[in-house]
Amino acid sequence: MQKKESFLVNRLKSIGYAFKGALYLIKTEASIKIQVFIAIAVTVAGFYFNISKTEWLFQIAFIGLVMGMEGMNTAIEYISDFIHPDRHDTIGKIKDIAAGAVFITAVAATIAAMIIYIPKIVLIN
Question: What main location does UniProt list (predicted)?
């Protein structure tokens, strides 16, 4: 009988798998590369404009939400293509819905960024 690994060892392995998946996503997906660039840009803007702790919390939450949704969208696309490699109307709808979820979070993130940064930009000029 194989010895069961400890809770801590299992958690560390899980973190390793998650990190591997995140790196794979960033290396292979154009959309996430754009989102990483935007995340870096708004982070720099956050330091430049000295945004509040609350604004940081919203900004970080939206960055995580958009990038997390992009990861889920990519996973859904991969599993859909695996299950049904040929074009299929239902698979197409599933992919469109997943992409729509990313779009919704990206629009919400954009609106939040506008609420945070437009007043700061207007005050500078």
Answer: membrane
